[in-house]
Design brief:
By secondary structure, this protein is an all-alpha fold. It has helices at residues 18-32, 40-53, 56-84.
Length: 102
């Protein structure tokens, strides 16, 4: 019989993408502009345009942050699955694509 007083750990938070980290950083900058619209659709479309026009060198910064977050997630997931004793969770495989050097 399982002990009901044992606290089970929370599952790890998923790793965020490079685009998500970009949006988290730039959303504050956009909202502080004097002519910024408060509509989330306008902000989201502006963020998508900025991300699309970002050079591959600038994107690399966010990809490195996302890769570090992915390593953190994999480590926490391994610890969580070790606690549970088996791997019953199905995680989508996350693949980081780096720009080609040419």
């Amino acid at each position: 019989m399982a002990d009901s007083n044992v606290l089970k750990p929370e599952p790890p938070k998923r790793a965020l993408s490079a685009y998500t980290y970009f949006c988290l950083e730039w959303r504050e900058r956009i909202m502080q502009m004097p002519d910024a619209s408060s509509a989330s659709v306008d902000v989201a479309s502006l963020l998508a345009d900025l991300w699309g026009n970002l050079s591959s060198g600038d994107r690399l910064v966010y990809r490195q942050i996302a890769l570090a977050d992915l390593v953190r997630f994999e480590k926490e997931r391994a610890q969580y699955e070790g606690y549970k004793g088996h791997s019953f969770l199905r995680f989508r495989r996350t693949r980081i694509r780096f720009p080609r050097p040419y």
